[in-house]
Amino acid sequence: MFSPEGPTLRELAVQALSSVEHGYDLLAPKFDHTPFRTPAPVLDAVVSALRRTGPYGDGLDLCCGTGAGVDALATLCESSVTGVDFSAGMLDIARGRARPPQPRVSWVRADARALPFTDAFDLVVSFGAFGHFLPEELPGLFAQVHGALRPGGRFAFPVLAPPRPSSPAFWMLLGFDAVMRVRNAVWRPPFVMYYRAFRLGEVRRELERAGFRVDLYALPEFGTRGDGSPRVRMVEARRTDRGGLGQSTAGRVNV
After folding, report:
1. Which pTM value belongs to this model?
2. What number of CA atoms fall less than 13 Å from residue 222's CA on the CB side?
3. pLDDT tens by residue, 30-70
4. Which residues contact 231 (CB under 8 A, 6 or more apart)?
5. Could you give the C-alpha distances from 148 to 98, 118, 185, 202, 207, in angstroms and in order?
6. Residue 27 contacts by C-beta under 8 Å, 6 or more apart in sequence?
7. Which of 92, 25, 4, 44 is nearest to 220 (CA)?
8. Where does 111-158 have alpha helices with state H?
């Protein structure tokens, strides 16, 4: 799973016994050589899906890590791109990458649950970060994104179909989550990383409650499962300013 340039087993163990923030500070120099980095095909597929409504003005990569999503956003946004993460180590690696002069790129260290932006972006994306948020934190997180977007702005992210109970991946993820729960019960500080806690139905409901109109789009690059359902979808949540539940359009859902 790891290239020779990636972290050793000992380094991963030290990371896992740290807080989320400090753990990623430690992992940052080798993060791009791990399977935790969002694969380029996923980034490319999301960019391709978003082109139909672009270009955009200002974009934000939420929980940007070492900046792979920022590079993807730069192909969609004409004015500026901002990467936000609470790991100083990850941001240091991101800043060190060579990039074209346009659009303007900036980096902000902040917690996604307390974003220092208001009506600042036309597009927010996030890749692979939601396992670090507990289900009860989703309403606050989505409210922060809603506030950071301009009216009509979009929040987009990919979601993989959950593995079937008959597949080895299902039991591997179940086992990982169980280990993390035991670890967090007996060790402090906690390291929040639960692969099975981010459920599409619940996510959609919370986005609507935060004031988003939610649509789902299949990413055809990844094909379909045996029952014909897509392996990977993109969630696209558009900011509305109505009170109460946002309105989703079932007719546009590509399932």
Report:
1. 0.87
2. 24
3. 988 888 889 999 999 999 999 999 899 999 999 999 999 99
4. 160, 161, 219, 222, 223, 224, 225
5. 27, 4, 34, 22, 14
6. 7, 11, 12, 15, 34, 36, 89
7. 44
8. 138-148
Report yes or no: 122 and 154 within 8 Å, Cβ to Cβ: yes
Cα dihedral sign, 247-251-254-255: positive
Residue 52 makes CB contacts below 8 A (sequence gap 6+) with none
In angstroms, rounded to a whole number, what is the distance separating the alpha carbons of residues 250 and 66? 35
Tokens of 1: 């799973």
Q: Cis link prior to 139 (omega < 30° from 0)?
A: no
Q: Which two tokens stand for residue 224?
A: 């379909």
- What tokens appear for 225 in the block? 């499962």
- Residues in the chain, overall count: 255
Quote the tokens at residue 57.
Answer: 């003005």
**Tokens read off for 96:** 């060190």
Find out whether 19 and 190 touch, Cβ atoms under 8 Å: yes
